[in-house]
Write a sequence for this structure.
């Protein structure tokens, strides 16, 4: 609200003023008074409320409250309760009196025009705009919070648009209005008032490149909507029509929160007197929005779509793998989307290319794909094939440098909801792989880290993944859903667990059982040989130390205990100073509800069963999970990736509303 205005009265001529409904106006009764006047009386016509404000410690209230002392401690304010029907149809009379009984020494007349001006948005976050008399200028988090939410208009509702809708300054589809937040301007008052006054809608310069406003004129054609505020327009003189009491606007977000943008934007409307130079705002009403964040979904959310790529290499097409993915998707009751070779250009690492998330406001939510800066064969797929109606797109590019392996989104994960030391993270916490602290190694690019941090609702945790050749967190961890109170388990690759299992099998007399048994392209290694291989053992123990360091970080940052963690047997070997999985990396799985698509490890066969598969089943199936082992050796493992790297999953959004949390 604007600061309280003051109207100065005159004994010689009437004073005229505009008064906004619900806004108090101060009346200056001291500046022009008759000589000898010591008291005054004030009265108003119907529709005007008059208040005498005084300090009870200094002012004695007159017996009939009709004559107040002309003291500095006595002030007059007034307000109107409805818009006027005509100009100057409300009046206030101030009479001045001397010390002795008798008639008034003089009178001042104030004629008022009441006008109802209010800018309103969905402050209560219920999906509808309602008139608000509370605080509209601030935004509060939490279940008792308030403040409107703005979606970034990053989908493409019209097939004629070349990019996301936010790039269009003209409406290209009426469906696009559903992605915007409604805003209503109340402007009731005499039509003649708006001959001498105007309404001006404003956006601060700092917010102008992050918000766009369209004015609606009630029709059903695209021409009935025009952009009135945005990056090129900081103000708009509202075109109020005769008799018009409400004007509808639609507001779109143009940018997600980031390092240079906290996510808050404001819009204001001012009632301006055109008869003064410079033009003077008589009243300003301001509303605040927070731009909805981009939100990731963890493995514990139900799957909706499974993505995989069709590729051909020296081993032929990956038809069998895609058939296995189809069977898995059928079991999990989710749709399989195959990216054809002509679109992926033989780039199979679809997890590295993009991450699915969503954005949500009280009136609408839609999925948003985050395109990584890796820009290899799949670089055009998210923009050309996923961006569409009610499917948004966002990316961050690395300027002046190329992407490293750690910039791929196999190095980006998110935990299920957790509570850490009493602090709730109802949407989980983002996990990214990085270098060892202060080591100067590889890190995910700052533009992506800044973007993830700026969303505020899934506070990121940096892990140590630079010890791996590829360097992705999905090479040593995964989350799976469970039906118990905890709701999930963290799976960690464990060389120690693998060496322990192999030692147990050797002690049971199965030392000659061989790893890679059944693989034509790999030399078998018996349990005895692997246990005797000092380098393999040394490499795996080094890797175990790296994973143990992450284990403690994860326990601390996610509030986990040892019973929340399952160790999955896995060996690693070093190539130079970086580690690679010695056999298919089983934690690098795709999780579709209770169905797990796990890389087939080709472990030693004992009593007709792979002992590695048998061990993993014994760990996970009691939790209600179904382990489905899939051969990814030639098409993925040999290229330093596994099933999770070669697939991607769009999941159901959280039912929890992000604005109910307190970051």
């Amino acid at each position: 609200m604007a600061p309280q205005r003051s109207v100065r009265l005159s004994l010689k001529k009437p004073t005229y003023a505009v008064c906004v409904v619900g806004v108090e106006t101060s009346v200056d009764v001291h500046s022009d008074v008759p000589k000898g006047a010591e008291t005054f009386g004030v009265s108003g016509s119907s529709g005007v409320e008059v208040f005498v404000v005084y300090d009870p410690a200094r002012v004695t209230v007159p017996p009939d409250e009709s004559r107040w002392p002309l003291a500095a401690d006595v002030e007059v304010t007034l307000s109107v309760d409805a818009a006027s029907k005509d100009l100057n149809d409300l009046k206030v009379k101030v009479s001045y009196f001397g010390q002795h009984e008798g008639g008034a020494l003089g009178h001042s007349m104030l004629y008022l025009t009441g006008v109802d001006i209010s800018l309103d948005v969905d402050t209560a976050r219920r999906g509808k705009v309602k008139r608000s008399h509370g605080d509209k200028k601030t935004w509060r988090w939490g279940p008792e919070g308030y403040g409107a939410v703005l979606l970034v208009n990053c989908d493409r509702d019209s097939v004629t648009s070349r990019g996301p809708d936010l790039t269009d300054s003209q409406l290209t589809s009426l469906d696009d209005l559903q992605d915007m937040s409604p805003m209503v301007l109340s402007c009731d008052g005499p039509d003649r008032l708006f001959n001498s006054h105007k309404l001006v809608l404003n956006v601060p310069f700092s917010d102008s490149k992050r918000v766009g406003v369209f004015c609606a004129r009630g029709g059903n054609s695209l021409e009935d909507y025009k952009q009135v505020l945005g990056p090129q327009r900081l103000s708009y003189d509202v075109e109020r029509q005769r008799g018009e009491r409400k004007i509808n606007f639609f507001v779109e977000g143009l940018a997600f929160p980031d390092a240079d943008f906290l996510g808050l934007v404001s819009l204001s409307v001012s009632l301006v007197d055109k008869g003064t130079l410079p033009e003077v705002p008589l009243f300003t009403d301001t509303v605040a929005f927070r731009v909805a964040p981009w939100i990731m979904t963890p493995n514990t959310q139900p799957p909706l779509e499974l993505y995989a790529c069709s590729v051909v290499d020296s081993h032929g097409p990956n038809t069998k793998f895609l058939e296995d993915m189809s069977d898995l998707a059928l079991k999990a009751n989710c749709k399989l989307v195959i990216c054809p070779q002509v679109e992926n250009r033989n780039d199979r690492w679809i997890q590295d290319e993009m991450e699915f998330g969503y954005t949500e406001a009280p009136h609408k939510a839609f999925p948003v794909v985050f395109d990584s800066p890796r820009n290899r064969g799949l670089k055009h797929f998210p923009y050309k094939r996923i961006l569409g109606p009610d499917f948004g797109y966002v990316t961050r590019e690395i300027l002046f440098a190329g992407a490293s392996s750690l910039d791929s989104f196999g190095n980006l994960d998110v935990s299920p909801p957790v509570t850490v030391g009493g602090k709730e993270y109802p949407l989980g916490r983002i996990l990214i792989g990085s270098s060892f602290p202060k080591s100067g190694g590889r890190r995910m690019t700052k533009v992506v880290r800044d973007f993830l941090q700026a969303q505020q609702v899934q506070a990121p945790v940096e892990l140590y993944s630079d010890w791996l050749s590829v360097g992705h967190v999905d090479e040593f961890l995964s989350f799976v859903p469970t039906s118990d109170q905890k709701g999930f388990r963290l799976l960690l690759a464990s060389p120690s667990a693998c060496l322990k299992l192999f030692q147990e099998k050797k002690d049971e007399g199965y030392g000659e059982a061989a790893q890679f048994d059944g693989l034509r392209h790999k030399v078998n290694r018996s349990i005895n040989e692997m246990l005797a291989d000092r380098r393999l053992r040394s490499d795996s123990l080094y890797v175990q130390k790296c994973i143990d360091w992450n284990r403690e970080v994860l326990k601390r940052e996610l509030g986990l205990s040892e019973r929340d963690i399952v160790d999955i047997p896995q060996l690693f070997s070093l190539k130079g100073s970086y580690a690679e999985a010695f056999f298919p990396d089983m934690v690098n799985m795709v999780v579709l509800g209770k169905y797990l698509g796990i890389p087939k490890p080709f472990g030693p066969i004992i009593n007709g069963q792979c002992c590695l598969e048998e061990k993993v089943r014994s760990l996970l199936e009691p939790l209600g999970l179904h382990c489905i082992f899939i051969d990814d050796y030639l098409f993925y493992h040999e290229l330093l990736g596994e099933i999770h790297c070669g697939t991607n999953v769009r999941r159901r959004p959280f039912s929890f509303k992000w604005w109910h949390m307190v970051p």
